[in-house]
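Deliverable D4.2, example record:
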Amino acid sequence: MSDRTSYRHAERLRVRWAEVDMQRVVFNAHYLTYFDTAVAGYWRAMALPYTETMAYLDGDLFMRKAALEYHASARYDDLLEVGIRTARIGTSSIVFDGAIWRGNELLVGGELVYVFADPSGSASRPVPQELRDVLHAHETGKPMTDVRVGPWDELGREASAIRTQVFVQEQKIPADMEWDAADAVCLHAVAYNRFGRALATGRLLEHVPGVAKIGRMAVLPGMRGSGIGRAVLDALMNAARARGDREALLHAQLSAAPFYSLAGFTPRGPVFDEAGIPHVEMVRNL
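Output generated by the structure prediction step:
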């Protein structure tokens, strides 16, 4: 349990004031919250939106047992790493091992036992083979997503559904501003998880000869921060390189500018309004 290299997924958390007791150490019950937060991150790392995944599998996971072993205490403002891994899968149960570290010091170990059952929780069911396969693939380092690049007539149905949810419904961009004639001639990218669910999209068009313009980047809310958006961006940049483009540009929402900075894009010019949202042009060499 203390071998950090055996945990492929870990969440970073900082201890908040509300989580410590009068001795300024973390109150015991909060460690279960830390593990629960890490389990949610584990599902994101597998590119599985939890609610939609359980609906697809026609079941749900119910906690059967949670056991913690305390080695040392976390304190206010500590930066923690919470590791989660699949330890074993039974007929209807999944056992997760967990570990909480401060630096290289193991603070708490945990075992979480879930039972797969019908949605009401009244009767257990065998863990679906599809879910077993994804858990095994993740733990053995297999890719969790497949990014497909192609024309609108191949990917438009999934791309339009994601863009409608993100831009029209979430960001309140008028539908007549979201859709344009460029979709028919753009190259599109869509990321799918291992169950075939589309999670993110983006498009690529020629701005001027030799310069690619990337746009309509959208990731479903539950999958943000999981690396799926970067996979879509990389796929579009690779497509631009393959056709000989030397530069890529995009109009980034200000809230997304740090994401693009990490991918090597730099701002160019002043902030401007686009569809009622502050944007900045960003560029990078290919």
